[in-house]
Write a structure and sequence with these properties.
alpha/beta, two-stranded antiparallel sheet, NAD(P)-bd_dom_sf, pyrroline-5-carboxylate reductase activity, P5C_Rdtase_cat_N, oxidoreductase, NADP-dependent oxidoreductase domain-containing protein 1
Length: about 350
C-alpha cells in the first residue's frame, strides 16, 4: 500500500508550474520505455534458456544412442549486468522473477556494489570487476551511462569470447560505434521510436508487476505500437540470428537447426490454425542465406557465423519475410505472450505497426 497516495502535496506533479504541465507526458514515456526494454530482454533470455535446454536434451539423447553414457553438464544461461543504476536493478528483478534466471546465474558489476544489498541477500554476486563478469557470462547487458561506455569497452574487449552476446541499452551509442569499441560482432541493440503521447503504462506498479498485467504486456509485443512506442523489428531479426549462432557454436547441422527453431519458436498456434498446421509459417534455409550459398551447403554443415551488427543494420534474406508475412507476425506475437503466460485469440491481438519494420 502506498501511504503517500492521497497526499497531494507530496505528489510529483504538485511542485510543477501550470505552464509546464504539458511536459508531464515525458514521465509516462520514460516508464513505457523502461517497461518495453525489460520485457524484450526477458523475452530474449526466455528464448535462449529454452534453446539451450533443447540443445542439451538433444546432445544427451545423442550420447545415449551412441553408448556414451557419461553425464553431460547442464548448459544453463549465465547473465551478467554492467551497471547497477535504475535500469540495471529493474532488469535484474525482472530476469529473476519472470524468466526466471536462478540467482547463482546472475551477476552484477557496478561501481557501487555496496548499494545492491537487496540482490546480495538473494544470492546474486555484486562486485566491481567488469572483465571478471565478461569472462563468466553468456549474455552481457550494458546498462551504463554513455559517458562510461568507452572505458568499459576498453576494459572488456579482450575478454569477450566470440559467442558472448552483448545486449546494449546505451541508446546514445549506435551499434556500428559499439562494434568498433568492442571489436565484437555478437551485439544486440533494441531501438525505440516514440510516435505519440499515449500513457497506458500505469504508475503504481513496479516493472515486474506491470509485465504481469495483460494490457501492458500485450502493449510490449514487438509488433505493437500501443503506448506510442515502436520497436525496430530489425532487433527481432538479430534475436533469431543470435539463436543460429548458438547452434553453430555447437556444430549442429543446419537442417536440424531449422527443425529446432520451428519447434521452439513457431509451434504455438492460434485455435483456428491448429486444424491446419501445414499452412503455418516455417523457417526455411533461404530465409537466412542466399540461393547461391544454399546450393553449395552440404546437409551436415552448420549455418555460417552471422555478424549480428550487420543483420540489424542491413537488409537480410529474412527482412522481406518479416515485413510481408502476416502469419509469421501473428505466430511470433502469440509466442511472445505465451512465454509470459498470457493467452489471447487473433481478435484480441495487439495493434500491429505496419511501419515498424522499416524504421
Amino acid at each position: 500500500m502506498n501511504m503517500l497516495e492521497d497526499l497531494e502535496s507530496l505528489q510529483f506533479e504538485y511542485g510543477i508550474q501550470e505552464e509546464d504541465h504539458s511536459w508531464l507526458y515525458l514521465q509516462g514515456r520514460f516508464r513505457g520505455l523502461m517497461i518495453k526494454a525489460c520485457a524484450h530482454a526477458t523475452f530474449f533470455c526466455k528464448l535462449l534458456c529454452n534453446l539451450r535446454e533443447s540443445l542439451h536434451e538433444k546432445q544427451t539423447s545423442r550420447c545415449v544412442l551412441t553408448g556414451l553414457l557419461a553425464a553431460i553438464p547442464n548448459d544453463e544461461l549465465k547473465v551478467g549486468i554492467i551497471g547497477g543504476g535504475n535500469l540495471g536493478k529493474q532488469l535484474a528483478r525482472v530476469l529473476l522473477q519472470l524468466v526466471p534466471i536462478p540467482a547463482e546465474n546472475l551477476r552484477i558489476s557496478t561501481r557501487r556494489p555496496e548499494v545492491l544489498d537487496e540482490f546480495q541477500k538473494l544470492g546474486i554476486q555484486c562486485f566491481y570487476h567488469n572483465p571478471y563478469l565478461v569472462d563468466w557470462a553468456n549474455v552481457l547487458f550494458l546498462c551504463c551511462l554513455p559517458s562510461q561506455l568507452p572505458n568499459i569497452c576498453l576494459e572488456i574487449q579482450t575478454h569477450l569470447e566470440k559467442g558472448c552476446i552483448v545486449y546494449s541499452f546505451v541508446a546514445a551509442v549506435p551499434i556500428a560505434r559499439l562494434k568498433l569499441l568492442l571489436n565484437h560482432t555478437n551485439i544486440l541493440r533494441p531501438q525505440y521510436q516514440c510516435v505519440e503521447n499515449v500513457n497506458i503504462w500505469g504508475a503504481g506498479k513496479d516493472i515486474t508487476a506491470a509485465l504481469q498485467d495483460p494490457v501492458i504486456l500485450q502493449a510490449t509485443c514487438p509488433y505493437s505500437a500501443a503506448g506510442g512506442i515502436i520497436l525496430n523489428i530489425k532487433w527481432l531479426e538479430g534475436v533469431f540470428h543470435a539463436a543460429l549462432n548458438i547452434c553453430t557454436a555447437k556444430d549442429m547441422p543446419h537442417l536440424q537447426v531449422l527443425q529446432l527453431l520451428n519447434e521452439l519458436f513457431l509451434s504455438v498456434h492460434f485455435e483456428d490454425c491448429e486444424k491446419d498446421e501445414a499452412s503455418c509459417p516455417k523457417f526455411q534455409l533461404q530465409d537466412f542465406v542466399d540461393q547461391v550459398y544454399t546450393k553449395n551447403l552440404p546437409q551436415r554443415r552448420p549455418f555460417p557465423w552471422f555478424d549480428l551488427t550487420a543483420v540489424q543494420l542491413k537488409e537480410t534474406s529474412f527482412t522481406q519475410h518479416f515485413s510481408t508475412s502476416t502469419a509469421f507476425r501473428d505466430h511470433l506475437t502469440y509466442l511472445y505472450c505465451d512465454l509470459f503466460g498470457i493467452s489471447f485469440t487473433k481478435e484480441q491481438q495487439p495493434g500491429v505497426s505496419t511501419s515498424s519494420s522499416s524504421k
